[in-house]
Amino acid sequence: MEVFWKSTYTVLALLGAIGLFLFSIKLMGEALQKIAGQGMRMIISRLAQNSFRGVLSGLGITAAIQSSSAVTVMLVSLSGAGLLSFREAFAMIMGANIGTTLKSWLLALFGFSFDPTMLALPLVAFSLFFLFSKNEKRKFTGEFIIGLALFFVAMEFIKNQATVLTLNPFIANFLKNAGGTEFQHILLFCFIGFVITALLQSSSAMMAFTLALAGTGGISFPLAVAMVVGENLGTTITANLAALVGDYRAKRVALSHFLFNLSGVVIVLFIFQYVIQGLTELLSLLNIPSALMIPVGLAAFHTTFNLALAFLWISFIPQMHLAVTALVNENSHKTKALKFSSNYIISTAEFSLLQAKNELAHLASMVASLSRLTSRLLITRDPEESDHLQQNFQFLTGEIQKSQQLTDTYLQKLSIAELSQQGRIRHQFMLLTADHLIQITRILRKMLVILKEKEESKVWFTPKQYQNLIELSDLVNGAFSLLEQHLNGDYHQANISKVMIIEEKINHLRDKIKAKIPKKIEEGKIPQASAEYYKSLIDTWESTGDIIAAINQGLSTCRWAPDENS
Fold first, then answer.
1. Which of 11, 98, 353, 420 has its CA 20 to 30 A from that of 395?
2. Per-residue pLDDT averaged across 289-304, rounded?
3. SS3 helix, strand, coil % of the chain, rounded to 5?
4. Would you give the distance in Å from CA 527 to the centre of its chain?
């Protein structure tokens, strides 16, 4: 019974240490994003103009977010929304694989050369100089330092519990029987690394455990390398789970991540003995202290493995695209709206805000399409075409409502306290914009009702009336096109002057048209009933233009300005 309770305590303590490790990564990632603020959003929004820059972008973003899985989930989501091409997403995935290895070096160099808890309390003391500052960025710096202190404490706990775990009779017996370098043992530990990483949804946490287990002599160096290989594949499961609710584009990107890492697993297992020999000879030549030999060896393998894999695939992105296109059929995986991935264990508020930004752009695009559809309904004379357009109108309206509810709920759930000052401004702007877009949808639906009533009443417009309405709708749709560009781009760089010029033209045209209506009625050129429908349509188009202008004016609050008290 005593053995049972000791074993239970060891397992719970190890899980607690891993939980503290994950929390420290989350805390550091959030703090870094809040410090980076607009700069991080600029890196992500510009993405990659070529594959090499895509790899670098993925590497940099992963270093900031502190999680390759979180980055790949984001890439899958953006690809599903059509906001990232396959080439861009796959290049950034390769970079994310490299970026996640940076933590391996931090663990190897600082987790085994001395007691990391010696740094923890001094770091906490140092953070106090920042935490109580009135400047937000200094506060976030303090949070990052606290996260780093917890990172070192968690690493020491993991090391201690890994040592205790290997003393357990059952575990010790298992490791002894599976401690050879036979291929079946290599496969077993590769599988263990894969499964536990998939369950934890964090290759970093599993890497910390592997380093602790190998560094304390619990497993041999070859078996530790096998576990790292499995971890590299296990980290792809999170993105593939996120892609289950996405469309064919999301599934293709997630599958490419799996195939990319699987190819590395197959290659390494095929030449496993040569890899171990090469690493052993390299470490002996470098004359590394014995305490650091295994941790540094694992970190070196982790980085070299992912670098080599990226170098191998960077010229074969089209071939990967062909492979996933053949495996994932476009017609059987159609989902219109982007699905948020907010339940990921190390997701952060700034990262989540980026997903909301892209869904908002997608929502605006659908509302703009609805406006253009309304313009076509205005001029069509074919009853069959009119019925088809009205069906499309109803379908698109439903999709818009779903997207707006999803976006609004997602934004409401975000913790304002975890956002930077710039992030909070954008958060408020996004909430207001989602509401504005729904207002436009209601106006367009009202316009459809007006057109139906006009048709049922057998009321006709003159060619001049049609010409004026078409001119007005063209101006509104032109403003919509500019709004789409602004919401897809960097908010702080939006130039709203063109939109405001269009708004002035809309108002001028409305005043000009409506001023002539009484005279036209008096002269008998426009029947009274026709004039009423005419004025209603003019007012609805003008109201749509007003709201588009209001959204663009809201962008002026998102200028990249220094934080307060800085």
1. 353
2. 84
3. 80, 0, 20
4. 55
163 against 493, higher pLDDT: 493
The residue type of 63 is A
Q: Where are the domains of the chain?
A: 2-327, 349-558
Query: What's the mean pLDDT when you consider all of the chain?
Result: 80
State mean pLDDT over 384-406.
Answer: 88
Instruction: Using the structure block, give the residue that is written with the tokens 């990249």.
Output: 560
Place 561 in a pLDDT band, splitting at 50, 70 and 90: very low
Q: What is the pLDDT of residues 114-153, one digit of tens each?
A: 666 677 888 888 888 888 887 777 888 888 888 888 877 8
Structure tokens at 310: 């990226």
Q: Counting beta carbons within 10 angstroms of the beta carbon of residue 173, is it exposed (0 to 12), middle (13 to 18) or buried (19 or more)?
A: exposed
Q: Model-level pTM greater than 0.70?
A: no
What sections of 414-462 are H helices per DSSP? 421-456
Crossing angle of the two packed helices 68-80 and 248-270, in degrees rounded to 10:
140
Q: Please, which residues have CB within 8 angstroms of residue 303's CB and are 6 or more apart in sequence? A: 98, 101, 104, 105
CB count within 10 Å of CB 515 equals 9
Q: Which residue has the tokens 């990319």?
A: 260
Token look-up 């303590």 returns: 13
What pLDDT is attached to residue 39? 55
Cα torsion 194, 200, 201, 202: sign: negative
CATH fold of 349-558: Methane Monooxygenase Hydroxylase; Chain G, domain 1 (1.20.58)
Measuring CA to CA, how many Å separate 551 from each of 31, 358, 406, 487?
30, 16, 20, 10
Tokens of residue 475, six digits: 């101006």
